[in-house]
Design a protein that fits this description.
Elements: E1 2-4, E2 12-14, E3 28-33, E4 36-44, E5 61-63, H1 71-83, H2 88-95, H3 98-101, H4 108-111, H5 130-138, E6 144-150, H6 156-169, E7 173-177, H7 185-194, E8 200-203, H8 209-220, E9 226-229, E10 241-247, H9 264-275, E11 278-283, H10 288-295, E12 300-304, E13 316-321, H11 333-345, E14 348-353, E15 361-364, E16 380-383, E17 388-391, E18 397-399, E19 412-415, H12 422-429, E20 435-438, H13 446-457, E21 463-466, E22 479-485, H14 488-491, H15 498-510, E23 521-526, H16 532-538, H17 542-556, E24 563-571, H18 574-587, E25 595-596, E26 600-607, E27 610-619, H19 622-639, E28 645-650
Parallel strand pairs: 6-11, 6-12, 7-9, 7-10, 8-9, 10-11, 13-23, 14-21, 14-22, 20-21, 22-23
Antiparallel strand pairs: 1-2, 1-4, 3-4, 3-5, 15-19, 16-17, 17-18, 24-27, 24-28, 25-27, 26-27
Helix pairs in contact: 1-2, 1-9, 5-6, 16-17
The structure holds adenosine-5'-diphosphate (ADP) and zinc ion (2 copies).
């Protein structure tokens, strides 16, 4: 028997099968590995072993407390392991919930079955409007990838519910992936209310072991009609999978940032293909990858252009020019007066601070010039420590210029400093107003955050101040104003994905305003009021924005027009990491269509006493890139020195 184990370097090991044990492909087995016992998964039945017969150890025990892993699950694991360049054993074992990786028996509580039937009773909230019904009709029972582009509040979730109902009625299971389930209890509540008899397995990483194990078992046994969860839910076996939904498909949280660096969205598409069922990628702001896939004819696009609730319309979006209405402590006069109006009317305002950790860029405040790379179209990142500019794309370096090459201004500054004191400013301006701040710091405890969000929904709080956390999926009925500060840092970012993210987050946050009868207003403070991104946002024109962005990406040779991977290394000394990257990348002959750039240090070079650097690899051909990565990965697994930590990131989306 060939068994996949989670151990470094090697992928498989052969064990013999004692007569008393009836293990088959897909079974979990306990085996001896060195001095330890480990859980492995049988992946092949063989009559010949790779080592001499007398050296083969026997399988110790079959672990049949969980169902045998089905062939399509193993096929998914083989695909992920090959595509993301991690050993199959690690991929498979790490995809199991922690309790199933352990040699200890499963907790008895997790094994209890609640005997609930596979109920398909459906209580819809609404009859679908004609646009929603048309979308539903276009989705077949067989495989197909559908990009559901629906503006915020257009009733996408309602479509998902009807799709799930259709699936349950056919006796099949539905998989629904969302970015953050623990922050949006309303979504779970909506599913539970719509399907009172179905077993719903909730899956996310904040669940405790027992709950996680029992949800996984319910999915794997085919008992759970609905699996609702974050990216890891895409790895759960589902023997009767009938539909896959990926809500907010553009969301970066679908990409795992450690171990097997998979994209749950891409894995979902592959899974649906294996299962022969449809997959729906829903969003108001598609990722440019998905949009491009639609343009290439790989995905079919379905549109919901209007808000579904009676009387609800999209908010009006306008820019406030900070060069004319110069901000006091971060706030323009027009913003302040708009907030005052909401206070008088007893409506809520949201002050949204776009505070992603963007890399600093050298900019001229007088004319708007920013330091760009001469070798490629990327912006240069300012490394304050050694006062150098570096292109994180190609590795080019330059000294910091003394004055602006366009206007001669000698006062060049790093751009990207934040608006930190907004909360205090607001408190001083609006004495007596209830101000609620929500960001990663104030929301350390999930339970508190959920309560705060619910309170806001009930109308508590007059002015909300928050970051990205507030943009997602919440429905605040009395919110009618959104003011956006600091949008510009994304416009001059070194990360070519920054405009795409900015558009998405602004469309999301704008989508929080005016979800009911009262119309919403969005004000964006900027020094680039004529930027095409804002023009498109104002017109709610995602298609126009996507077209312009894709043209830029094509001209610059960025994804989705090329495929990318990053090899990253960490070592106590930067020279070690840089030399490692050079040697490793250089040791493998790149096919003609593959470009291997020079190693570059990260902006935050040092983290936890390790210096970090990376090499970007690009190719217009996916097979050529994969061929190179496979060879590179073999080289790394075999020859990487111990003092360097490294990983490969295929289709990376975060670079710092
Ligand atoms: P999305 O997921 O696109 O943001 P939702 O499904 O949450 O949209 O719907 C937005 C709002 O519109 C919700 O309040 C929902 O109850 C309402 N809604 C959805 N579909 C309909 C419909 N067919 N008729 C009336 N209201 C609807
Ligand atoms: Zn200038
Ligand atoms: Zn460059």
């Amino acid at each position: 028997m060939r068994v996949a184990l989670h151990v470094p370097l090697h992928k498989f090991f052969d064990y013999s099968l004692p007569e008393a044990i009836t293990a088959r492909i897909g079974d979990r087995v306990a085996v001896r590995f060195g001095a330890q016992q480990k859980i492995g998964i049988v992946i092949e039945e063989r009559t010949q072993a790779a080592v001499a017969v007398e050296r083969i150890k026997p399988i110790i025990a079959l672990r049949d407390d969980a169902p045998r892993l089905p062939p399509d699950w193993i096929a998914l694991m083989r695909f992920l392991s090959g595509y993301y360049q991690r050993p199959l054993g690690e991929t498979m074992v790490a995809a199991l919930p922690p309790r199933l990786r352990s040699t200890k028996p499963l907790p008895r509580k997790a094994l209890e079955q609640d005997g609930q039937a596979f109920g398909a009773r459906f209580i819809p909230n609404h009859r679908l409007n004609s646009a929603q019904a048309a979308v539903l009709e276009r989705i077949p029972n067989g495989f197909g990838t559908f990009l559901l582009h629906g503006v915020t509040g257009s009733g996408k979730t309602e479509v998902y519910l009807h799709l799930v109902a259709r699936t349950l009625q056919r006796g099949l299971q539905a998989l629904v992936l969302v970015p953050e389930i623990s922050l949006t209890p309303q979504l779970e509540a909506r599913f539970r209310a719509a399907f009172p008899d179905a077993r719903l397995a909730l899956m996310h990483s904040a669940l405790e072991d027992v709950a996680r194990t029992s949800a996984w078992l319910a999915a794997a046994r085919g008992e759970a009609g609905i699996v609702l969860g974050t990216r890891l839910a895409v790895l759960a076996p589902m023997p009767r999978l009938g539909v896959v939904v990926v809500d907010e498909e553009h969301d970066a949280s679908f990409k795992q940032q450690e171990g097997l660096r998979y994209s749950a969205r891409d894995a979902a598409v592959y899974r649906a293909k294996l299962a022969g069922c449809p997959v729906i990628l829903g969003t108001a702001t598609p990722s440019l990858e998905s949009w491009h896939n639609w343009m290439l004819g790989r995905y079919e696009k379905l549109e919901l252009a209007e808000r579904a609730a009676a009387g609800a319309v999209l908010p009006s979006v306008s820019t406030v020019d900070v060069r004319e209405d110069s901000p006091q402590q971060g706030l323009c006069a027009r913003t302040v007066s708009a907030i005052a109006t909401r206070l008088e009317r007893g409506e809520q305002s949201l002050v949204f601070i776009n505070r992603r950790g963007y890399a600093p860029v050298l900019a001229c405040e007088a004319c708007g010039w920013t330091a760009g790379c001469e070798r490629c179209t990327a912006r240069m990142v300012l490394h304050a420590a050694d006062r150098r500019l570096r292109c994180h794309h190609c590795g080019a370096e330059a000294a910091i210029a003394g004055n602006c090459p366009t206007c001669g201004n000698v006062d060049l500054k790093p751009m990207g400093r934040g608006t930190q004191r907004v909360e205090e400013t607001l408190a001083a301006l609006f004495a007596g107003a209830r101000i609620v701040r929500i960001d990663r710091d104030s929301a350390r405890r999930r339970a508190d955050l959920v309560r705060t969000l619910e309170n806001i929904r009930q109308g508590e709080g007059d002015i909300l101040v928050g970051t990205q956390l507030l943009a997602k999926g919440h429905d605040f009925p009395s919110l009618t104003l959104v003011a956006v500060l600091n949008a510009d840092t994304a416009l001059v970012s070194t990360d070519y994905r920054a405009p795409e993210r900015l558009f998405a987050v602004l469309a999301q946050v704008a989508g929080r305003a005016g979800r009911r009868e009262r119309p919403g207003e969005v004000l964006v403070q900027t020094r680039y009021p004529r930027h095409p991104l804002f023009a498109a946002l104002t017109r709610h024109d995602f298609a126009g924005f996507a077209k312009a962005q894709l043209e830029e990406r094509r001209a610059a040779g960025f994804p989705p027009f090329v495929f990318e991977a990053a090899l990253r290394a960490e070592a106590p000394r930067l020279e070690t990491a840089m030399a490692f990257l050079k040697t490793m990348a250089g040791a493998v002959v790149a096919p003609e269509e593959v470009r291997v750039f020079d190693p570059v240090p990260h902006v935050l070079t040092r983290r936890a006493n390790f210096e970090r650097a990376q090499v970007i690899v690009q190719s217009p051909s996916r097979p050529a890139l994969q061929q190179y990565l496979t060879a590179l990965s073999e080289q790394l697994f075999e020859n990487a020195p111990r003092q360097v930590r490294w990983h490969l990131d295929v289709d990376p989306i975060e670079f710092d």
